[in-house]
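hey m, so remember when u said the tokens were messed up on ur end? i reran from scratch. heres the input so u can diff it against urs
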Amino acid sequence: MSTKAGKGIAKSILHALEGGMVPENGLPYIAVGRKEEVEVITSDMDLIAGGHSTFRLLEGAYGTGKSFMARLIKNEALLRGFVVMDCELAPERKLCGTKKEGLETYRMLMSRISTRTCPSGGALPEILESFTGRLCKEAGDQGISTPEEILSFMETGAAGMKKKIEGMPHGFDFYEALRLYMECAAFGKEEEKDRLLRWFRGEYHTKTEARKSTGLPAIVEDSNWFSYIKLLAVFVKEAGYTGMYMILDELTQITRNIVNSTTREHNFERLLSMYNDCYGNGARYMGIILCGIPSSIHDPRRGIFSYEALKSRLSVSRLQGDELLGAPIIKLSMLTPEEFAILVERVEDMHAMLHDKEGYFTEEDRIKFVNCEYQRIGAASHLTPREFIRDFLTILNLKAGKRPDDSMEDFLYRGGGIEMTPSMIGKEEEEDEEIEMRYETFTL
């Protein structure tokens, strides 16, 4: 890959960064640091490819790079041939709830399924078509032509997968849906395919509705949606992918943002079940990534650690050092000043390219900016990449626009370039004097 981003990618990166968001594309152009964290996740990917499942929590304050790290994991997983589903938890999307919030999370995840050739989501039809298409091609290579014979060949080819899937909870219903999809592929029933896609996505509200539309007696529900996620992970592996990742952001939605203690505990129980499945062979070929702020994990009243069964599993051993490999919770450390300097240089290069400039500042100027940012009170532990990039982009926009001749010192020490003129000062003094005279004779 080229070390320089194209104008289209650079524009999308800077647009996202200005809004405090993680860019959809081009992350390698601005990724710095996180070497140890990346090594841990890539080690997990090797385990998943071998049939295991992993469970990780990314912990960090707002703006420290949790979403960036999650997006980086997604991109790396896609490059390695994984299927990735991701979504942000929200008031209407939790792990379970009285208003089917868990089912809403499942539906969002299914709509956000991504593959390397379909990285923006909506890849479920592609996955099913690649599976059935491969079997149909193999049948054609052997001279099989009639729909009945093709279907029989496909069912024979899927016999190994059938055995694995039907040995899991809800596996018979899931495999029957796959068999019906294979039948639709063999006989060219496109309309029936769309109905089955709705079933896979959990869009049928009642079993009666699903039975009338597809002939299937079961549906995905709030109580069983994670079982279907586990079945999907086995299917995508059998369909030729490396495995599957499920990434959930905004963990705080199931911790401090749930006021009712019973509902919160039910969500913790679902989370515990997911953890146990990953480390107890209830799930295979799957990685789970959860992102949350420290209080969503450590708060003794509403955090995950308020649920003793989760706390005992997720707590780091007292003998654990700085190594991350054996810890389910990955605490995202602050970027170093050197890493920030590299980051702002890359951002400046993209900004200058978009404005047809050779550059704005020297390396010494960028170091002055980094040092100035670190002079904030508590910056060593609380300065976030989001704040850092926002400040630097503000300077770049001013340099490219209204203040092209100003130096880095001017931007850093002139209060943003807003100076009080003598006339403005005089006006302000007159207003203050007028206010004082207005209340000069006032007494109680």
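this time it looks ok to me. The first strand starts at residue 53 and ends at 59. if urs says something different then somethings off w ur setup not the seq
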